[in-house]
Amino acid sequence: MLSAELPPIVSEFTTEEQAASYDRWLRAKVQASLNDPRPNAPHDQVMADMRALIKSKRNKHDVR
């Protein structure tokens, strides 16, 4: 059991409607991802693909 009270979370949103709107958007994105029938990609493969993409973008900008 915790004896110290934690401070409330500080919201990034100005109004409750902004927070609710973001919550609806996020939940829809998560549900769409869960409903996606495509197979999941392994983490290591995604990271390797992203490293290759970043490297190719850097190489494009380094060539002058």
Automatic annotation (TrEMBL):
Domain of life (superkingdom): Bacteria
For this entry, the protein name equals Antitoxin
Describe the location of the Stability determinant domain by residue ranges. Answer: 17-48
Task: Extract the InterPro entries matched here.
Answer: PaaA2_dom (IPR048851)
One Pfam family name is: PaaA2
